[in-house]
From TrEMBL:
Organism: Climacteris rufus
Biological classification of the source: Eukaryota, Metazoa, Chordata, Craniata, Vertebrata
SUPFAM superfamilies with a match to the protein in the record: SpoIIaa-like (SSF52091)
Name of this chain's protein: Sulfate transporter
Keyword Iron: no
Residue ranges crossing the lipid bilayer per the database entry: 54-78, 107-123, 174-196, 208-230, 250-274, 335-355, 376-398, 410-428, 472-501
Membrane topology per record: Multi-pass membrane protein
Family: Belongs to the SLC26A/SulP transporter (TC 2.A.53) family.
Database matches in PROSITE patterns: SLC26A (PS01130), STAS (PS50801)
UniProt keyword annotations, A-Z: Cell membrane, Glycoprotein, Membrane, Phosphoprotein, Transmembrane, Transmembrane helix, Transport
Reactions accelerated catalytically: oxalate(out) + 2 chloride(in) = oxalate(in) + 2 chloride(out); sulfate(out) + 2 chloride(in) = sulfate(in) + 2 chloride(out); nitrate(in) + chloride(out) = nitrate(out) + chloride(in); oxalate(in) + sulfate(out) = oxalate(out) + sulfate(in)
Gene3D superfamilies: STAS domain (3.30.750.24)
Any GO MF annotation of the entry: secondary active sulfate transmembrane transporter activity
Length: 689
């Protein structure tokens, strides 16, 4: 039977586009109000804020995250190659802006180790190109921690007219200039992606690619912190292969390790890991996580200050951290041009992590987010703070988990966290002068536990899906051994190649009938299937397009044990020789057979079927090559008096076949060539006999 298709209403695309354009360009007071309400979601939910119900959870989670943010911000400044004060600025502004523009109630947006690493790699590269020594660390001078005194801590000053900065600029000044330019461009990219609705780009970052990228970057982060752990002075490696070069330099200089830093690092790692493990084990009994990092930083700072570890044992310390805010400054345009390419992967990674976390927690707590607005929010979390000496931000999983576990209800908690950071910025920052860098390195390394544990998941991942495991390994290896940006690109390209290869060489099978049913399955996978006499049922589990056309034909000929082109050629050859012998009056063929026997000889034994049914249930689309391939096998098998029937085609495939002329001009033979189930095709084939 032939099902009747619905009549499609022809859409006049030009009129629709003009109507949409007219609607979007019109401006009314109500539309203007809705625009501002959508652009600043806080205007919608804040007036409905249930103070008695939400305030305690928001305040508690905000305080806890603020306490965690301070040590993490100071620590992650090592990754970014910047002074700790800039990390604190970043944490403060990101929380305020996301409070105004974000649609997720729970994610914690701020400084993130992976983003800090990507920023730090660009900063280090540009410092080298500008002629600065990456290891030219000034010995911290005593002072009151003011901005004026801190500005004197820059070492060699360079006149950077070649890169567009006309005034003399020191190493720290140039480093934050690069970071803010990079951040501004990344934010612009994210806003443009939001305007043009390019959020679909995130679809090409599979879970395996993201996990592999994060794990590979974690190895790079860990490697970069080892020199601080053991207190050695080695050059900061740049470019491809940084991980291997850094480890070679570490082992070459291991004899210069600072014993004070080694002992401090060992104690801090033991304390932090033990506290984290106990916290994970008894988290259901704890109302909020233990502020272990803050305790370690406070105790380590006191020990370092009163034990004079910097003066006596030459242990490297954080140095003076100024208080207050530096006057805002527009990022340098010429520097933006230098980092425009680097900003693209940074923008994509920042957006993908933020949106994926937002969607995950929105689903968990039964509300919705707007991915496009999230892109705007993250974009402006980068654009606006770049004027205030901040660098790129993203949502962070670890802090978001802590936020939800401590009772967070809305982004009011982000404002509380920002107030805690502001307190440190205004009053408490100079107190961290004597904090050892090895303590900060310990905090960073321990925070990587989650990503490094992914190595333990490899066997389970391999058991679940071998191809995804290969994608993870390739992405992780490229991210660690080459560079993070190249690793991300390699992961995306390799995962797409895997999809292409899987469609180029998909699974194929001949089907048998499940006894006493109208269902058919792979006869190599299931027992007790019965073959249908004189019928072959072929399944191709992929779209049929130009890249897998040859594989489709080879698989069909191999499984049916018949190549129609070869068989037709063989028959023509025999017929030609037979005619030649008949003209000579020889009634025997070259094989020594009579004419009657020749007829039997020309019908090959392997042709044990009269109908070929192609199961199209897994063919999602056809291109021109695919249609021509089906027309080709229809013609070739017809020359051998074998019928070709199609079964289980979806509507788009049927439409493509119609447009390609597969069913003829008037579709008169369509009901004899197309069937909505394999069983209908089998019954038709039996009737035709």
């Amino acid at each position: 039977f032939l099902m009747e298709r619905k009549t499609r209403v022809k859409i006049k695309r030009k009129e629709v586009m003009l109507a949409k354009l007219k609607k979007s360009c019109s401006c009314t007071p109500q539309k203007l109000k809705n625009f501002f309400m959508d652009f600043f979601p806080v205007l919608r939910w804040l007036p409905k804020y249930r103070c008695k119900e939400y305030i305690w959870g928001d305040v508690m989670s905000g305080l806890v995250i603020g306490i965690i943010l301070v040590p993490q911000a100071i620590a992650y400044s090592l990754l970014a190659g910047l002074k700790p004060i800039y990390s604190l600025y970043t944490s403060f502004f990101a929380n305020i802006i996301y409070f105004l523009m974000g649609t997720s109630r729970h994610v914690s947006v701020g400084i993130f180790s992976l983003i800090s690493l990507m920023v730090g790699q660009v900063v280090d590269r540009e410092l080298l190109l500008a002629g600065f020594d990456l290891n030219d660390d000034a010995s911290p001078s005593l002072g009151d921690g003011s901005l004026q005194n801190d500005s004197l801590s820059n070492t060699t000053a360079f006149n950077l007219t070649t890169v567009g900065i006309n005034a003399e600029c020191g190493k720290e000044c140039y480093a934050i200039g690069i970071a803010t330019a990079l951040t501004f461009v990344a934010g612009v990219y994210q806003v443009l992606m939001g305007i043009f609705r390019l959020g679909f780009v995130s679809m090409y970052l599979s879970e395996s690619v993201l996990d592999g990228f994060a794990t590979g970057a974690s190895l790079t982060i860990l490697t970069a912190q080892v020199k601080y752990l053991i207190g050695i002075k080695i050059p900061r490696s740049q470019g491809h292969g940084m991980l291997v070069i850094t480890w070679i330099n570490i082992f070459r200089n291991i004899s210069q390790a600072n014993l004070c830093d080694v002992i401090t690092s060992a104690i801090c790692i033991v304390v932090l890991v033990t506290a984290k493990e106990l916290g994970d084990r008894y988290k259901h009994k704890l109302k909020f996580p233990l502020p272990t990092e803050l305790v370690v930083i406070v105790v380590a700072t006191l020990v370092s200050h009163y034990g004079k570890l910097n003066e006596v044992y030459a242990s490297s310390v954080s140095g003076a951290i100024p208080t207050g805010f530096i006057p805002p400054k527009v990022p340098e345009f010429n520097l933006m041009l230098r980092v425009a390419v680097d900003a693209l992967p940074l923008a994509i990674v920042s957006f993908v992590f933020t949106v994926s976390l937002s969607e995950m927690f929105a689903k968990k707590y039964a509300y919705t987010i707007r991915a496009n607005q999230e892109m705007f929010a993250v974009g402006f979390c980068n654009i606006i703070p770049s004027f205030f000496h901040s660098f790129a931000t993203s949502a962070a999983l670890a802090k978001t988990l802590v936020k939800t576990s401590t009772g967070c209800q809305t982004q009011v908690s982000g404002v509380i966290s920002a107030m805690v950071v502001l307190l440190v910025l205004l009053f408490l920052a100079p107190l961290f002068y004597s904090l050892q860098k090895c303590v900060l390195a310990c905090i960073i390394i321990v925070s990587l536990r989650g990503a490094l544990r992914k190595f333990g998941d490899v066997p389970a991942r391999y058991h679940m899906n071998k191809v995804d495991t290969l994608v993870w390994i390739v992405t992780m290896s490229a991210s660690a051994l080459v560079s993070t940006e190249i690793g991300l690109l390699v992961g995306i390209v390799f995962s797409m190649l895997c999809i292409i290869v899987r469609t180029q060489r998909p699974r194929t099978a001949l089907l048998g009938q499940i006894q006493d049913t109208s269902f058919y399955e792979d006869d190599l996978e299931y027992e007790n299937l019965s073959t249908v006499p004189k019928v072959k049922i072929f399944r191709f589990e992929a779209p049929l397009y130009y890249a897998n056309r040859n594989y489709f034909l080879k698989s069909l000929y191999r499984l049916t044990n018949l190549d129609p082109n070869l068989e037709v050629a063989r028959r023509k050859k025999y017929e030609k020789k037979e005619k030649q012998h008949l003209k000579k009056g020889n009634h025997r063929t070259p094989n020594g057979l009579g004419i009657g026997e020749t007829t039997l000889q020309l019908v090959p034994k392997q042709i044990d079927f009269q109908t070929l049914i192609v199961d199209c249930s897994s063919i999602s689309f056809l291109d021109t090559t695919g249609v021509n391939t089906l027309k080709e096998i229809l013609k070739d098998y017809k020359n051998l008096n074998i019928s070709v029937l199609l079964a289980c085609c979806n509507p788009s495939v049927i439409d493509t076949l119609k447009r390609g002329g597969y069913f003829g001009r008037d579709f008169g033979c369509m009901q004899e060539m197309l069937f909505y189930s394999i069983h209908n095709a089998v019954l038709f084939a039996k009737d035709q006999k």
